[in-house]
Amino acid sequence: MRRVVILTVSFLVALSLHAQRVTNEQPYGLRSNFIRAKIQETTMLSAPDMTRIEREDKYNDMHSGLLRYAYPVWVNFTPENSGTWHELDNGSRLWQLKVNIPGALATAAFFDQFWLPEGGKFFVYSEETGQSVGAIISEFIDSSREKPIEFATTLIHGETVVFEYYQPAYVEELPIISINRIDYGYRNVNNQCFGFGCADPCHVNINCPEGNNWRREQHAITRISIPMRSGSYWCSGALINNTANDFTPYVLTADHCMIDPFNGQRMYGAESGAFGGLWGPNASGWRFYWGYEHPGCNNSTQEPSPLRVSIGATVVANRDFSTSDFALLRILPAQDPRNISGVTPFYLGWDRSGNPGTGGVGIHHPGGDVKKISTYTMTPQSTRRGRPPETYQFGRYYWRVVWAPTTHQGVRRHGVTQVSSSGSPLINNNGRVIGQLWGGRSYCVNMFDDRGRLRGGPNEPDWYGKFSVSWTGGSTMAIPHPNIHQRLDHWLDPRGTNPQTLNGILWIPPPPPPPSISGNTLICNAPEVFTLRNFPADVPTIRWSVIGPFTLSSTIGNPVTVTKTGFGEGVLTAYGGGRELARITLHNQDFALTHQEISWTEIANCNLYIESVTVRSGDSEMTLGALDNVFVNGLIVRSGAELTLKAGSTAYLSNITVQNGARLIIDAADLIVEGSFDIEAGAELDIR
Predict the structure, then answer these.
(1) Is cis: bond before 306, omega within 30 of 0?
(2) Backbone phi, then psi, for 257, in 5-degree steps?
(3) DSSP character for 616?
(4) What is the pLDDT of residues 557-603, one digit of tens each?
(5) What's the pTM value of the predicted model, to 2 decimals?
(6) Which of 91, 174, 390, 551 has its CA 20 to 30 A from that of 431?
């Protein structure tokens, strides 16, 4: 949030305990049963010059609407030039890189190239605290080997961080992991302030009674971490609906959140040129935190956990504060908040009519802290940015709002805004967005300049860029800007219906799939592994039973290995929580040909047994085989016949005669011959 009056404030980094879209597996280096090969050496980096940083912050904190909480350390780490590869007993490989930046309260990594082969798993963690992120797998990133993406991981407590990549034995391609930046969190932990616990004391938590009428809308609000060249910063934003009602993950925030406050350089924009910025539309390092709020009305010393984060977006439209100071981003498909466990996103409706109505709320993350709510009862006034109500018409692209006090159980509260509330939505009493926060003069207490003049306070105004102006991106609502990247209507009205208002929409996740058992139900000579999937969270232990000609490696645990003990069908059943969860039918399909003449093809699913069989004269191009083994004891291939014996594994041959003019083709991975093998003159034997 841009402050018209700036006072010195304090800060905090908000650190995640669980984060972005991951499988929620424990890193191999933290597993109790994992025998660590010599723990990797630590790569030591120099801490930034904190004297210079503090000098920069002292000035910036008094003149900018964005507050820095981390400083970038530029690096060049890849599995090819850093860390250690370990060969594991099962043929898989493990790459580990441990990095230390002395004095860091937290670190966050950025990657200029990132791609994982299918089956590979990437983790980031702290050995000291056990905090981890992972596993990140190929399914969760929009990347290919030919086009690796830029990527980021969320904050990890402490000054030492471990990067770990696991490569199964069956995966041949190496990953592309290029770490080019590690953010050094230097002010933010233990209530030093900027992030968790750092909102001013008058702020009202979203789950207080003031938020009772806004329970759906609160699920739209996101805390955003934005990397700049000079460091990382917090802003606020909100998911917003479009006329297709298709849950496209558009996020509305403020354009000034894309400008580096240290040099005024634009870092992001929807296109090249004046509005494009140094990094253009590529917001791959942006982190969107969902549901970052206290569960009740009172503040807590415990940070919300687990944290749920989407990483990466594209800027699709923006205009600077000379008009309405808006930015619209689209979160990358693989990071869609609908795919993150525990997130039930709401997509705010909007009102582009230019009629603000009376009363509403602002929901935001002041100081990067948990979600807060501010209430207004007035009719927002149309003004220029940072101006009082006026009759001057040109340039009135903003809504001027003054917040109202609220009372609950005799306690008077007065929600306002704060730095990092920037980009948060102004929501009217119909639950629709009418603007996003530019800045203002609201504070918890009255503030005076050195001459005793009032410069800020709970009854001072804030200004929000008008949604109605952002809709067309132009100076009038009637004439759209010719560039689709400088207006909202192209993106939020894909159906071209041009409505004045649109209601919000809540994502209701489909019911979870029922528990099921996965694995190869055809069990031949090799054991097969079965896994119970989608089992309920309230089931701590999985138990198994099997009937039929099969045996289990264990009756407890998940997965389980099944081995055949005979022939026929059976049933494998999984139990948990005192009830049956799933069952599956097992097969063991061997086949036998004995004491007969044949003239047909036969392929067995497991093993084929042939005893005292004659292939009739004149029959040609027959095949006898099995997916596993073929056992032959007594076979005559008569003159004129052609037979292929095909074994997926091994052909065991004994007592075979191939008559004059007949042909026998043996196609097997391995061949074992016992007993007689008679090839008459004029017969043909072809071993492949």
Answers:
(1) yes
(2) -70, -10
(3) P
(4) 888 999 988 878 899 999 998 899 999 999 887 888 888 888 777 77
(5) 0.74
(6) 390
